[in-house]
């Protein structure tokens, strides 16, 4: 396994420079590392725009970006400009999208345990949809409307009893789930009846999300079949099938494009006689492959007869996915993106945890050395957004690149940021 990095894991606008170095959006990654420091998230802006356009081409106004994958004001503006609405899962995500001047009507508020404050703020702002997840939430909405809040448009989130082929922590369509109302037990129908009878909400449709990093179109088709039967007698105008489309992270993985996925969903819905307008909510498929993370190698520690540890200046605080889900990544040296990678090492971070692993069995070029900039591709989703300050590490900046320009959209944290909320 000494092959070079497969190029399809890199952002759309990745090219090889005249010295064999990686260039994204016309920017040399080594120059970016020099200018902005490492760790650094580098996003190909046109890649993000192209994926958003793909979703909008297929679903128009009913293409929603799941902002939990990656959110900052520049990202909220970008997907809004491209015509997507935005799924916000908390008051915090809602606040960032509103701070980017995205109209509240383009936001869809999610969450299995929305607080009274989150609901009140969303209703006062006039969010486009609230995706209702429980009877307790209905109680809270009714109390707020009774106290003067405007009645929201709602979708009801249901679980179709479909177990998607993915990590158990990110599967959400099965009956044993904290999310939504169960179809199989009749609870979902009870929720529909209650919402229809309530003056405090305007029920416009059903929502379902079976999980994340799902590759098989079949899992979505199964969910649609359950939803077709469930919604047939309801005559509701909207049906959102959620996000979840998987992306390739490592050599050998393949996934359908957003357009292919959309075509499959649309034709499955048509053949099931679904007449409601179909909506989708991708996060990962928009953002993941748009970015690479740059690190600097700080130590190379060969352990005789065991393995070599390569430690970089980030780790589980900028990418917790390997620790949480055992997720795999590739790695490469941007100075020689096409180089063979004959040496196997373990790429680890700088945190006080043995589990702080970024790439368990990484293939790297044989001349990797301390001081090298090392990169991991496909880090645009659930990396920056799931980042932390563990060990009081400063969160990395985010740069958008396009046509040779690099635009800082999130700056690196400073020690003052760490103390901003510390009032003791
Ligand atoms: C309700 C909902 N919609 C959309 C998404 C986006 O999922 P993905 O990033 O896998 O497309 C998620 C996350 O799994 C979700 O919980
Ligand atoms: N954080 C998960 C996806 C969760 C999706 C949110 N419902 C991941 O990185 O794969």
Report on this model:
This protein is α/β, with parallel strands linked by helices. The chain folds into 2 domains: 7-44 and 289-419, Lyase, Ornithine Decarboxylase, Chain A, domain 1; 45-287, TIM Barrel (Alpha-Beta Barrel). Helices cover 28% and strands 23% of the residues. The chain contains 12 helices and 20 strands. The strands form 3 sheets. Strands 5, 6, 7, 8, 9, 10, 11, 12 and 13 form a 9-stranded parallel beta sheet that branches. Strands 4, 14, 15, 16, 17, 18, 19 and 20 form an 8-stranded mixed beta sheet that branches. Strand 15, helix 11 and strand 16 form a beta-alpha-beta unit. Helix 2 (45-59) runs parallel beside helix 9 (258-271) and helix 8 (217-231) packs parallel to helix 9 (258-271). The longest helix is centred in the N-terminal third of the chain and has 15 residues, at 45-59. The radius of gyration is 22 Å and the shape is globular. The mean pLDDT is 96. The protein binds pyridoxal-5'-phosphate (PLP) and lysine. Lysine binds next to helix 11. One of its GO terms (biological process) is lysine biosynthetic process via diaminopimelate. Residues 46-288 form the Orn/DAP/Arg decarboxylase 2 N-terminal domain.
